[in-house]
Design a protein that fits this description.
- The chain is of the alpha+beta class.
- The chain has 2 helices and 6 strands, in the order ββαββββα.
- Strands 1, 2, 3, 4, 5 and 6 form a 6-stranded antiparallel beta sheet that branches.
- The longest helix has 14 residues.
- It starts with a strand and ends with a helix.
Length: about 100
Amino acid sequence: MEITAIATIKTNEGTKSTLDLDIPLLIDLVPARKFKVTQVLESLGHSDVEVESENMEVFNAKSTVNGKKQETTIEFGYALRHGDRLFVLNELHDLIKK
């Protein structure tokens, strides 16, 4: 098992997905995280990406996908990776507290 950074992506259409960023640590600077949001969305086919930060973990983006305007929220976090499975750390924390 290893720790990896993840991005939980929620769209205004209600879809939610988790993307393994395949890096062990995120830089704790807003400009670096904004760049990562833009990079993630562009890799998923978004263009004209504009990013605003709520805090160091949550970012809101406006972009265009297939000619349609899209609003996306990206929340950064960490997970344990075991093979092809991800165990999000805050979910593990909640499970252990029960």
